[in-house]
Amino acid sequence: MDLFFNNNVTEGYKNHSQIARRLTEDWVERNMFCPICGHSVLNHYQNNKPVADFYCCCCHSDFELKSLKSSNEILSKKINDGAYDTMISRIKSYNNPNFFFMNYADGAVNNLWLIPNHFFIPAIIEKRPPLSANAKRAGWTGCNILLSEIPESGKIQIIKNSIVIEKEEILAKYKRTKSLLTKNLDSRGWLMDVLACVERLPNKDFTLNEMYLFTEELQAKHPVNTFIQPKIRQQLQRLRDKGYIEFLDRGHYRKL
Hints:
3-stranded antiparallel sheet; 7-stranded mixed sheet; 27% strand; 7 helices; alpha+beta
């Protein structure tokens, strides 16, 4: 995998954002395999698709690329995306893309993450204020993706500090996350929220009482539900069944 950009593809471009987009998309087209099925190449959508840049011709997965000029090895807390209504519609229809998030500097890729589409729920899509009446696209409303709200398990690193991770490791990490896939949006939201709480606990072994400390936070995210602690127990059972935690003793668990 060649980490350097091909500057020849920007000939004739003057706009900085267009140049960055051309460089980064060309890099993906030349270098990336499908992290879902392992196919050796990804194809670029020729026309501007509302919420996708690339697709795999084998497993038919879609991918959107977001890039940032930075050498930071930590994923941003949030990142701008396109139209809010389009993004929410895709998530609710279970046809949302997988995302690549790239950091680059000095003409080369420094870090690249994959976030599978089943980690996306409406709660992590932040609605931006609509454009003013004087704007060219007056009333258009964009969105931010709140990356900090996504469990760490869903942030699969492909390149870390200019070091390429082995393909087999990337495919294995994605395969593990597939157990979290569910078509029920509310169920997906609860599972992701509780998994994120588990990951925030400092120790590998933890207790149910420690999880109950997130009750108020989870209540704010799910205001309609009045049985938060039973819901926490239910989601811990689901995470156990999916191989993310194990049950040690009454009220005691271990991260796997």
